[in-house]
Specification:
The model has no long low-confidence stretch (mean pLDDT 96). This protein is an alpha/beta fold. The longest helix has 22 residues. Helix 3 packs parallel to helix 4, helix 6 packs across helix 7 and helix 9 runs parallel beside helix 10. The chain has an 8-stranded parallel barrel, surrounded by 7 helices. The protein has a two-stranded antiparallel ribbon with strand order 6-7. The chain has 10 helices and 10 strands. The protein is 37% helix and 14% strand. The protein has a single domain, classed as Aldolase class I (TIM Barrel, Alpha-Beta Barrel). GO terms for molecular function: 3-deoxy-7-phosphoheptulonate synthase activity.
Length: 354
Amino acid sequence: MRQTSDLHVVETRPLLAPATVLSQLPTTPAITALVADTRDRIRAILKARDHRLLVVVGPCSIHDVNAAYDYGQKLQALREELADSLEIVMRVYFEKPRTSVGWKGLINDPHLDDSYDINTGLQLARKLLLDLAELGMPAATELLDPIIPQYIADLVAWTAIGARTTESQTHRQMASGLSMPVGFKNGTDGHLDSAINAMLAAKQTHHFLGINAQGLASIVTTTGNPDSHLVLRGGKDGPNYSSDHIEMAATLLQHKGLPQRIMVDCSHANADKDHNKQVAVLQNIAGQLQRGNRHILGVMVESHLVAGHQAIPADLRQLTYGQSITDACVDFPTTVEMLQDLAQAVRNQALVVR
């Protein structure tokens, strides 16, 4: 008899159950309070009850947990310094979407050697989130695989759904059950329709397939997530962070009965894929804030210890410590200057509003 299944599957390996990983790496009351309180503050910013700005800043992706922790220590000091104006949350991305091929992130390939030790990747990711939270540093991430939230979502304060997955029904359903605020990015073509439709879909109740804490295939029922928002990241036609773009986006959101509050991704197409241009993007946003723009709720910045990016070398000992292996980032001293200037713009905006 001819085989009709698994023609292209060469291996299946057991996956640790979420309950197993959570029992190995448990949270604490203090960490739970940090996550819950940060989510509440982000919701207050989203609803314009908090005048501060949400800032999601950090490496494009995490490939070295030690460098990420060092970055988190530095960022925590800046978070405390600027807390009157900015709610700083560290960008801690463990999954990377790929148009064709490439490294898919720490969870998928933690050793950078195509061994795809996903069980170890899940444990490393959760351990880093716990370590950062113990510093007092809340985390944000992008969720790609709908199974991953079972392993780390209890430690995440804010989540993005990326430009490539905003149109996906699977990710809209997943977002409807997430416990934190979710930002939907506009599509890679720059159009806003897919993200706005995703926000509408995520507000609704859904029934879909997933896994439970024991790793068993399950039917998941959600209530809908009321805390989604739009993230502008530019597109094929160029940037979309100008005051005209933001006003247009706010009008579209108003027509759909959605909050007219918008986040700007300072990287990707908004920076023409040049990490140094993030500085100019943030300066533009700071200017809009000082002129009284009330639609902007936050920004995203790709930043690491060392500027730029590097290819993964054959000899991993040659990796530059604290430099991205995916998109290029600004370095930490530049990040400090950017966020200090942004914080001053938020303070000035508060004076304008008064």
